[in-house]
Structure formats: structure tokens, C-alpha cells
Design goal:
Layout (H helix, E strand, L loop, with lengths): L1 H6 L3 H14 L1 H7 L12 H12 L19 H25 L7 H21 L12 H18 L11 H7 L5 E7 L5 H13 L4 E7 L4 H13 L3 H5 L5 H15 L2 E5 L6 H15 L3 E7 L1 H6 L8 H25 L2 E6 L20 H5 L2 E7 L10 E10 L6 E8 L4 E4 L12
Parallel strand pairs: 1-5, 1-6, 2-3, 2-4, 4-5
Antiparallel strand pairs: 6-7, 7-8, 8-9
Helix pairs in contact: 2-5, 5-6, 6-13, 9-10, 10-12, 13-15
Amino acid sequence: MSIISNQLTNSGLEAQVLRALAAAGPEKFFELADLLPLAAFPTHQTAYQALADAFTTDQPAPADLPEAEIPSGFNLDSAAAELAELARKRLVAEAMERAWAGIPVKPAGEVIAELQEAVARAEAAVRELSAGGVTFAADISSDVLRWVQEFRAAREATGRAVIYPPTGMPALDRMVSGMAPGLWALLGTPGAGKTFFAIHLMVQFLRQPDAAVLYVSYEEPVNRLVLKAWCNSAGLKWDDYTTGYGDPAALQQVARDFAPLGQRMAVMEGNQNTTTAHIRAKAAAVKARTRARHLLVVVDYIQLMANTAAGNINDRAYQDAVRHRVGAVVVGLREIANRLEATVLAVSAMNRASYRDAGTLSAARESSDIEYSADVFLRLQSGEQDIPPGAPRPVELHVLKNRVTGQTGMIPLVALVSQSRFGEAASGGSGEDCPF
């Protein structure tokens, strides 16, 4: 901790800023309040809190502030910025020191993972230093206009009906404008095809040459996940190949055809040590390695991610722990979507009480956080049950929430079991937005 105490703190400057703030009065204090959180005063936190309390309640500045001589030409704004920068550096140093401590006793791979997580935690902590600033609309008018122009330019550049990577289902694309960045929730009853639908969306996403995917799986082993992706892309029945009936020569050609997409598809097997900070670090690495403009992160599924370290399933404390962990996972995935400008697809189990109620948002098992945090909320509902094995199976896709365009509704789909694909029940589309 010596670098933090010796090089990353400046008690003299803290005292000078406190004295200068007291002399300048409440107006200047509130101007700099967003820049100066309590963590910016590690030596004189009590004095800073007392000054804040006094000004907040319209009281005069405390008389017992630390002694300090204010030099001529002292610039309060610059001094406050320096304290804020020191606070940010301390957070980074503390995170890195915790990871560094494990180097002598832990395997190199584990240390690298911890360093990646430490960096992600430090970045999040630095952002959270501020209580939140105020932005006036007039100050960002040009930024908003430039932002809107980017959407127009993207549509003209792609020539597609949607500006984001399409889902392969025209009705869904029209409703959500493709797979826009943000947090997407995908719910469904057991057997509705949540994982297969996630794989379908992943393959469609990868069809765009500037797109990459990180698929975090808690159920599917890597080899089976890749096999399902191959079969989805080529329209083959995946379980023919796991039962010995499929043609290996045909699959070899599929593997060759899929190779350019496979270069941008990364799979991560989740375990009890996997955190959202770890996922974020891996996702950032995938995006950098592939130089992708669009990034999709799939987590399949969030309850299993929360369950891995929650405890004894028979304990009441277990249930509370799972709810808390699911909520924390959702917050972490929201952070990944925001910071990496990624589309994050969170696959979620449903509570049993919602199995028959297709039109509700409060269906996510162990968590209501996802219904508030999600930008797009999808639910798969199985249709008619008496379907012969291998025959197309009707499925309803309910778009229950949509912050992208505001449109919601139900889209009838068909699970094409013999092709390992999903399609719209009455599509009629063609071309890039309807590849099958």
C-alpha cells in the first residue's frame, strides 16, 4: 500500500482545497461537488463531510477546518481536478494490488483472469466516484443531432431494412430494428427452445462481417454448441450427428463454410468462478481481437450463473442468495451492454406461476430486476403440443418490452426441427433479412 499512501495522497492539497472552498462559499462548493466525492479526501474526509453538511443546510462553513496556507495564484478548479485524479488512481492501484498479491501462489492463467477483473472493477469504481452530474439540453444539441445522423448514415451504408445486425425474421426486425445494443432478456418455459433461439440469433448476428459473439454457456458443452451453430447455418438436423446418422462428409463442408464466422465466435464455459467482470473483460478482448463493430454477448442462462455459488438448495438463505445474485448478474450485464456498446442477450428461466400467462413481464425466475433493466424483453411460448416428432413446431414469440422502437406484440414462429432453425410462420420475406 506504500504507493497509495506515499504517492497517491496529498493531505496538504486537501487542506488547501477545503480552506478555499470554505472561503469561496456554497455556490462554488456545489459547482465542484460532482468533481469532488468524499473519496477525494482520504486524509480529511470528516472535515469535508462537515463542510458539505454545513453548506447543504445553509449554515456557515465550520471554523475547525484543517490549517493550510493558500498561496497566491491558487487555482481552486485545477486543485479540485488534481484531487479527483488522485482518487481515481488510488482506486486503480488498490484493485491492481489485490490482484498482484496472488501472483506467487496462483497459476498464471488465474492471475491474468483476476487482473482483467481488477481492471473492470477499477473502471466501474472510477465512474461511481461521481454522484452524477447535470447536463443541460442546449449544451448537447449538436451531439444529439450528430448521433441521429449516424443512424441515417448507417442505414444508407448497409442498404438493409434495419441498421443493426438482423435477426433473420422480418417481422421481428421491423419491430426491434435488428439486434440493437442494450440488454435483451429471453424467457421461455422448459422445452420452448430458448437456447436454440439464442443460437439462431447468434448465427444471424455473425452473418454480418463486422460482428463478433461471445457465448457464455452454463449448460451446453463447447463441442455441442458449435455443432448446433453449424447445423443452424446449414439447415441440418443436429441430433442426427450425435446419434451417428448424419453424413460426416456433409458436415465437413459445413465446417469449412462456417469457418469465417467461427473466427468471430468465441465460447466461454461458465463456472462458479465466472463473474460479470470476467465476462466483460473477455468480451472486450473478443471485440478487440476481431475488430468488430457489433458485439453480441449471450449468457445462457442467468439463474445457473447465480446458482453456482449460492449454497444449499434446501435453505431459505439459498433462495435469498439466488435472488440477490441474479439481481447482481443483471446489473453487471447492463454494465457490459453500456460500456462495450454491446447487445447482451440474457437467457432466463421462468417462474412456474407464469407458464400459462404469456403477456406478463413479471415472469423471470428469482428476479424482477430483469424486467426493469431490459431494453428488449422476449418470451418464447410453445404452441400446439400434439406435433409428430421432427415436424415443424409452432412457437409464439412475445415482444413484451421494446425501448428501441416502442413496438410490442406477438410474432408466430415455427421451430424447424429438421433444420435446427426458427422461421416466421407466415414470412414472405426474401434476401438478407430472410435467409431461409
